[in-house]
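Note to self: keep these together.
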Amino acid sequence: MASFFCFGRQRKNSAGSAGFSGTLQPSDIYRPQNDATSESFRDAKAFCDQNPVEAAQNLSSSDLQRIRERGCGAWGLEVPRPSSDQVRPIQVEDCKSDTGQFLRVTTFSNPPNLGDPELCLLSDLPIIPGLYGTNGSRGVYYEVTIEQMAGMIAIGTACKPHPMWRYPGWDRLSVGLHLDDFHIFCQDPGFGQEYTSRLSSIESGHTIGCGYRFDNGSVFFTYDGEKLPDVDFDLYRPLDGREPRDVYAAIGAEGENVFEVSFGARPFKWKEGNDRAWMMDSVVGTTMPPPYEC
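Structure:
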């Protein structure tokens, strides 16, 4: 089944940044100096000021039943609510192949006078449910396979509510790898940081993965099955008095793109991700959630 929605914001060209050192410090200062317009930055700042981060919640009985029945196939992408200034359609299809289930996402360009706005799709279930223990798992992981990237795609994680017109990594409690310049962002509306020279081009058929490690709170990415360096910002663990948060997969897009999203219902290219220790449905049990395990 396909879902359609529209949205609208304008984007500018990207710029350079400093190199990645292996440890990324989250930015606590809003600096409107990235790829987006100043209007987009101001709107996002106002959105975050007016909408506090949601507290972690127990999954509903219907969500738990869905996970029991479908495993990792229970995870999908949430369709944002349209607003009056939204223009361009997005298509999300639930697909199956011989190897398993995946989501196929198609984004389209606006007419030239309207520009190509960004959007951010979040998973409809948290990939890290904040009130649940790790249940012996090593982490969680998902993949995006590129069919066409005539525009721009970003992959990462975020908490709700997240401004739907902003890439992951630009705003609070979010991290993102942006595939136009391969810079990595963590709560950073600036230019981000260079990540790794092992990631230098994106073509049709390439797969980018995003994972989170429970042992140290780091996020990492993969490229066609090869694990890339950990990003050690430890943004989500409930340490030092921080409240537990539900964390969602976050995929940004702009312009004409086609890509597939797998949450584990078909085999991952990163072979270690196919171990049960990395499967999302292994984190959520069928009983009341245990205390969070660091």
